[in-house]
Amino acid sequence: MSSLLGFDIRIKDDHRFAAFCSFMNIDAPGRSRFLRQMTLYMPDLSQSCRTTLDHIICILQHANQLHRLTIITFDGREFGCLDPRLIGALSSLTSIKDLTLAEVTDDMVTMLQSLQSPVAKAHIHFEPAWLDEIDMDPILVLRNLSSSLRQLEVRWPVFPLAPHYDIQYSLLTELKISENIRSPVLLAPLIYSFPNLRNLHIIDVIDEGEDSEDDIEEHRQANIFSQSQRHWEALDYVSSDILYFYQLGLSCKVHHLRLELPEDHNLNLIKKVLYMVRPTRLDIVCSSDEINYSPMRLDRTVDYLTHLHVKVKNRNSYANTSRIVWQDEVDPWAVCKELLQIDRGSLATRVTEAAPAVRYIVLKLSTEFAAGSSVWQVLRSGGISSLKELTSQDAQRVKSELALGPDF
């Protein structure tokens, strides 16, 4: 039975779901306890007959080993309010550890505020594009999970302008913010509500308008000032694009920093943020046009940087979900050849000049069609530096030790 029900049960197609319910109802209390994962499509459930709805409610009431739950509330179709009994059955689940909710509705807010499970990992999409709902504050909406959450990913969030002094997620160590619509996030509410945060990822920031330099500096200074009252002692990992990270104004130590550099980035911003957070490990992702000066003109005062990873992407291409598109009728193979023939040894030498304390250098030059990488160890003796290129197992060992993800 566990092999039959251990996979993700996706409740969507009405006919197949009816067959599933018939199978489960032979012994609902016994069979439901073997469920481990489930995906519910609310537009379909909202249109189900009462008998079908009764079946799913019965299954949920006995699913006491259900660990992963995904709820889809938006697939292009609108629907009305859900049956209160279904909301009650979802709220009564006690074993959910991993929760994905796309997207938040009023019914889902009700469920979240009374959910009895100790959810440790949550992926919550707050975009209410089809309901004209007001912006929802993740800290407030998820407060019922504050005693158990360890990892949180939020899409389209609108964080508060002032801290919730009475809400703390004391176990949460990893926060991922994607498609954020308020730029930048104010740090004070995050620091108060996530006091033990270790990893912060900010990706796919939505720019709703062009801020002036004065606005950007005002955001930064407000965040810097707020940290004089309360701040994180240190963060293990932060990932962001350079402009957003600059506006965050983080003043604590960041051990591992990953920065995306746009083609028109300001080198001065990089120096300012490095001076503030003093990373030991720095990942830089830049385009091929920036390689001649981008990470190699940091500053010789960067004596705290021991590991530098540089990923150079070809700026003449971009990818979407269905195809690779080349701009300006560029020959992709010519671009690949030109990019991959860059003298990586010379590049690594310039890195050691820019960051005199660096010990390992990982360079990756990539396009969507091909990639080339090299790993270097910096050897120093009597004030003189030399480079040793690592290959095969030695190179892989360095990548493993540095915990380089798939992007590198």
Please explain how this structure is put together.
- This protein has helices at 2-5, 14-24, 28-32, 42-45, 50-62, 84-91, 106-114, 138-141, 187-193, 213-226, 242-248, 267-277, 332-340, 344-354, 392-401, and strands at residues 8-11, 37-41, 68-72, 98-102, 121-125, 151-155, 174-178, 199-203, 234-241, 253-260, 281-287, 307-313, 317-319, 324-326, 360-366, 371-381, 384-390.
- It is of the alpha/beta class and 408 residues long.
- The radius of gyration is 25 Å and the shape is elongated.
- 34% of the residues are buried.
- It comes from Hermanssonia centrifuga.
- This is F-box domain-containing protein.
What attributes does this structure have?
408 residues, alpha/beta, 15-stranded mixed sheet, 31% helix
Care to give the gist of this entry?
With 408 residues, the protein is α/β, with parallel strands linked by helices. It has 15 helices and 17 strands.
